[in-house]
């Protein structure tokens, strides 16, 4: 089946664009970049249909072995790719949505510098993400895991001349690293305990073991993996990098921080579901982390003014939902939500990019408004996405979110109510963004050079009025809108049944209605606040000034981390490690070796005095010693 | 025995004399004494070669160079203390060591009798040279050639 | 070794001892003298001592290999004397001195 082609094609795109891109013309770069992902996507389709995934096949895992990577004592790791139904879902999402975003980027980045570099990085990212998804053992997945972290850093800091962007890139990578530390510890534990890192083998072994009800090996592994997942998927406490990551170009936000990389954490928990199922503590903690993150992020999203920040916090919140789904045992619901979220969040981000492009780089929603006159296609597609995320009935978002909430109710009713309230908030802030952007009067500047505001990805076209985006941009939007609307009808839980057995019984129908009501209520409230009586938000804000400040400043979490973690580490490094360690100890040793060598040399130099007689003396002495030695050897025989 | 005594005296003389000419003449004396000893030990060819080559040609060369360079008397300089206190005992030690080895190898043997060893004639030597030791023989001829070239190169005048 | 009136014929070990004495004398000359030519002659003395050893052993072992070796030593000594004296001549031309201590140019 040649699974290896799937990640290798984008890797080729990276190599070609990276090495030769500077000299290639735009159309060629586009062809290489988009083409490689397109080919990868087509190959995925071919492989999956060949394995019978679309026609009820692929019940067992299909594995391809390439070569043995590490062979050292008991450690035996080979490069294997494996596809089962879970991987199939991920592959379709990654390559499909990835392809749409590549096409979109052609339009979006057309005015930007570093064009070929952007696409090279995007292709490299696809390679690593696909390796992550296809990897059949922990270590190969970790290679992909690290790689996407690297590409995230490269792409967030794409506008590397802005300190803001490079700082954000650093933050993302460093926070990710903290998570990776937990992940690596988990890998060690898995190896020590099971002797292998292969997923299939480990899961098979775990399946037959008893369930732990207190702290034990499964809990340890699960929690360590969770640490890694919170870093990658931006959950509490390692979510702080994601809002800052909006410094990167918008397609990056769409691809990496909505559809693919951040879902890696969800994927790893689903992949190792057997381990989690065998530890009751771990699952509870996952659910609570997810729920808390969902709630807190949604509250922050209520007060943000930058359109990308709103969606960033929305992503964190929705990821929280996925974790909640996993935590209450509804693994397939979590993956289902992963897929639908990829559709509508990518749509929302790309749409936001379109809006920003229309306003010539403006990202602050207070300076937008009334765009429905100028950008109708964007508005319609964004409406679809917003409705989906808000949980409008029959749309994709509702389908997956309802499944999660139902499962949550089964587990613990209070989780359900918190989740419903969060859904209401989700609907509210999304439609707040929508109404602020598209309704009312245009409050932006109609100047020649549209470089208003901070324009992180600045498109200084010098256009006067807002305008619709080119075809390369709105076609993917339309496709994603269609998926957001109809994606709910792809019955993922049924598809994933061989891996994650379906729950028995029908949940109470009032659960669905309550969630629906929350969503509609949120939309209505947003309509009230921002269309009917725009002065209402102002007065509310003034009444609850303290609370508003708290939310607007993200609960001061960044500042807290800064003072407790970052400052001590940096000053500790500076004082201790640099002054003492580096300058005194290491430089001292290096210089000391040099000085000692010189000293010894000085002593030895006296032998080479140029004084012939001393040479002669040494020759004689040596000869005498040699004679003595030979003589005594001979004589004493 | 007599010749041994002559050899030793000449040797000491060589070391002690200040003027190089005196040392050269002492060396000739040593060689002559040694030639006689070789004869006693049955090495007729060697004795003859010693006299002809060594004492005849090489020492003549030495004397020639000394005359050419007009070497004068050496100035008297105190021996460095290191040499005095370390060197002399060291050499004595060395000598003692050699003497000991000699004792071990040849403890007591009949005295040397002139004529006891008959294999040192020119015919015998020649036979050995051209059969067993042919290769070294040829190599030494090359060596002599190189030495000639070297000496010529070193001693010629610079071409202006 | 018997003392008293010196015997006319002596055991071969005495020859070896003589050789050793001459060798040590040569080393002394080599180390102590300051005139280059004298040093050179000390080297020749050492070579002669070795020749004596060879011939003595040849007598003891009743083989002519010692003679052959001695012959080669003489040849080599001849070549070495020729080249060495040529070098001394050149040094003298450059330095105008035959003192062994003054031909060094390495700075201490």
Rg value of chain A:
30 Å
Interface with most residues: B-C, 78 and 71 residues
Strand content of chain A: under 5%
Query: Could you state the order of secondary-structure elements of chain B as H and E?
Result: HHHHHH
Structurally, the number of domains of chain B stands at: 3
- The number of helical runs of chain A is 25
Please state the average pLDDT score of chain A: 80
- Domain module tally of chain A: 2
Label the structural class of chain A. Answer: mainly alpha
As residue ranges, the low-confidence spans of chain A are 447-463
Which sheet architecture does the biggest sheet of chain B show?
A: none
Helix content of chain B: over 70%
Going across the major beta sheet of chain A, what is the strand order? 1-2
Number of strands of chain B: 0
Radius of gyration of chain B: 20 Å
Would you identify the CATH architecture of the largest domain in chain B? Up-down Bundle
Please give the oligomerization state of what you see.
heterotrimer
Characterize the largest beta sheet of chain A: strand count, sense, and whether it forms a barrel: 2 strands, antiparallel
Question: CATH superfamily of the largest domain in chain B, called what?
Answer: NADH-ubiquinone/plastoquinone oxidoreductase chain 6, subunit NuoJ
Order of helices and strands of chain A: HHEEHHHHHHHHHHHHHHHHHHHHHHH
Mean pLDDT over all positions of chain B: 75
